[in-house]
Amino acid sequence: MTAARGTMGYMAPELFYKNIGGVSYKADVYSFGMLLMEMAGKRKNLNPYVDQSSEIYFPSWIYDQIREGKEIQTEDASDIEKELVKKMIIVAMWCIQMKPIERPSMNKVIEMLEGDLELLVMPPKPLICPQETPGTEDQELD
């Protein structure tokens, strides 16, 4: 690959940061995760025009909301719809993990979306830029 092409915000970090893993099908998983996050949150993932600076990067902000047990604001949504939104966000967070090896395969993504919310485990908090995290090179979620 000689040049990275795609829409900013949807392009996987490994297209820019070579030290986090090679380009593979997991780049598509990342893009799908960003799209899924936008669908669930009904907003762009990177929004400089929000009222609070903590809300600029939506995946990081919503992660904190879920982790703290706060209800996701969905206007006029039924309990089933709220559960579906939460499931979509958790699956999306798995898809947008910084390192490709930490992202699920699309088969696993489908399995998580079709499964029960109670069976989903919260992933690590999604990062905006890579950090050295020793010990994660051997882990893969398939």
TrEMBL record:
It comes from the Eukaryota. The keyword Flavoprotein does not apply. Keywords: Glycoprotein, Kinase, Membrane, Serine/threonine-protein kinase, Signal, Transferase, Transmembrane, Transmembrane helix. Residues 1-120 form the Protein kinase domain. It is a single-pass type I membrane protein. Coiled coil: none annotated. Signal peptide: none annotated. Pfam families: Pkinase (PF00069). PROSITE patterns: PROTEIN_KINASE_DOM (PS50011). InterPro entries: Kinase-like_dom_sf (IPR011009), LRK10/LRL21-25-like (IPR045874), Prot_kinase_dom (IPR000719). The keyword Membrane applies. GO terms for molecular function: ATP binding; protein serine/threonine kinase activity. It is found in: Membrane. GO terms for cellular component: membrane. This is Protein kinase domain-containing protein.
